[in-house]
């Protein structure tokens, strides 16, 4: 028989521990459960483990969703917390995430709660994650909370992908069009300009304008490229400021077509996050604060924090939410109904599902719209340049005839 060092929690919520003699770890766990002890760790005496130092970086959301789903299954199966963390840590292909899980395991084994241990690693486990885990621990429904978390993260990853698609696709197409025109002006037009100069042809106004644009690009190409990167750098720095983020995020919301998509994404994210937090037992004020931080848009974040202040003063959510002018009236009315019927989390989930579908349709529509628009713009620009270059040739041909 071996000796096993164990730690756990009593039914009253206190921490306890000791040394138990048993034939195996499983028999030791079974014995402790018969004593009504919620086991957090059981290990054979003398077998220690070390946790490597943790570097920087952020854990991938997809990886976190898989971890959370597997964690919930293991907890539901009755495995002790530390054993779950030990198994999951060993399965990670990310060295960073592996180190974080091992650090959490060490803290839990030392007597910390799971939420307290996770709170030390904000780059992997944000406020939403930690607060929901804390609510799960307090209510004894950690496996259920972890399942909800994994579902939420999976939907959040999908929504984030739609945000990237909505923003990156038009920017990418416009960038490619700009690069094509830039190369034509830089490399192709000078050849035609030399030909026209050798022939001594009289150039029409469109041709002269294109050649001047080409000469400008050729003469200042270094400054143009440097200016492009400088603008990008200063925009990034400006966005990092309090005012800059609100100015740029406000412009994004006011942009035709794209702005409507971003509003729908913000509504879906707000409803899904708040519903997940409320259904998990997180207090409404904490839920609104966490939801504001995960909004992804400074204007929406400010609106939610304004709602939080009103709720703290004794008002409902729906009334101040309508005053923000950020959320559609239908959303405000449905949230009001949810508050009156006591089913706010269910109503928020329904709104989130509706708007997630709306975002799907809107992004698909944007893709279909952008393709012909970009082709038309690129064709018009390049066609104008080509026609401008061939106009002098037409004049020369007419003179010869």
Describe the overall structure:
There is one protein chain. This protein is mostly helical. The chain folds into three domains: 43 residues; 94 residues, Type II secretion system (T2SS), domain F (Receptor-associated Protein, Up-down Bundle); 247 residues, Type II secretion system (T2SS), domain F (Receptor-associated Protein). It has 16 helices and three strands. A three-stranded antiparallel β-sheet has the order 2-1-3. A hairpin with a 5-residue loop joins β1 and β2. About 1% of the residues have low confidence.
| Number of helical elements | 16
Counted beta strands:
3
Strand order in space, largest sheet = 2-1-3
CATH architecture group name of the largest domain:
Up-down Bundle
Q: Give the integer mean of the pLDDT values.
A: 82
CATH fold category name of the largest domain: Receptor-associated Protein
CATH superfamily of the largest domain: Type II secretion system (T2SS), domain F
Largest sheet: 3 strands, antiparallel
What is the C-alpha radius of gyration, as a whole number of Å? 30 Å
Helix content: over 70%
Distance between the termini: 110 Å
Helix/sheet category: mainly alpha
Percentage of residues in DSSP E strands: 5-15%
**Order of H and E elements:** EEHEHHHHHHHHHHHHHHH
Task: Report the uncertain regions.
Answer: 48-53
The number of domains: 3
CATH class of the largest domain: Mainly Alpha
Shape: elongated
């Amino acid at each position: 028989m071996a000796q096993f060092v164990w730690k756990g929690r009593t039914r009253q919520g206190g921490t306890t521990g000791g040394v138990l003699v048993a034939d195996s770890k499983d028999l030791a766990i079974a014995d402790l459960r018969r004593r009504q002890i919620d086991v957090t760790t059981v290990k054979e005496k003398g077998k220690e483990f070390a946790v490597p130092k943790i570097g920087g970086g952020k854990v991938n959301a997809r990886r976190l969703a898989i971890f959370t789903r597997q964690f919930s299954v293991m907890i539901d199966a009755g495995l002790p917390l530390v054993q779950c963390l030990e198994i999951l840590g060993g399965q990670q292909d990310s060295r960073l995430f592996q180190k974080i899980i091992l650090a959490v395991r060490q803290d839990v084994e030392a007597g910390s709660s799971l939420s307290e241990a996770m709170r030390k690693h904000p780059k992997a486990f944000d406020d939403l994650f930690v607060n929901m885990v804390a609510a799960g621990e307090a209510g004894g429904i950690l496996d259920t909370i972890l399942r909800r978390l994994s579902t939420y993260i999976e939907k959040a990853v999908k929504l984030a992908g739609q945000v990237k698609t909505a923003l990156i696709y038009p920017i990418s197409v416009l960038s490619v069009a700009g690069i094509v025109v830039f190369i034509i002006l830089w490399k192709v037009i000078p050849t035609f300009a030399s030909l026209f100069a050798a022939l001594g042809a009289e150039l029409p106004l469109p041709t002269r304008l294109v050649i001047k644009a080409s000469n400008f690009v050729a003469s200042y190409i270094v400054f143009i490229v440097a200016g492009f990167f400088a603008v990008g750098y200063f925009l990034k720095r400006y966005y990092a400021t309090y005012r800059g983020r609100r100015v740029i995020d406000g412009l994004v919301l006011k942009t035709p077509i794209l702005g409507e998509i971003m509003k729908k994404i913000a509504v879906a994210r707000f409803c899904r996050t708040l519903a997940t937090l409320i259904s998990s037992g997180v207090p409404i004020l904490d839920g609104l604060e966490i939801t504001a931080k995960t909004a992804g848009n400074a204007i929406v974040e400010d609106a939610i924090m304004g709602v939080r202040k009103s709720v703290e003063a004794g008002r409902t959510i729906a009334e101040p939410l309508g005053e923000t002018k950020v959320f559609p009236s239908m959303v405000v009315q449905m949230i009001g109904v949810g508050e009156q019927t006591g089913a706010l989390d269910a109503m928020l989930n329904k709104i989130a599902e509706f708007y997630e579908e709306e975002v799907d349709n809107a992004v698909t529509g944007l893709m279909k719209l952008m393709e012909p628009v970009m082709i038309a713009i690129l064709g018009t620009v390049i066609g104008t340049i080509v026609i401008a270059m061939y106009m002098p040739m037409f004049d020369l041909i007419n003179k010869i005839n």
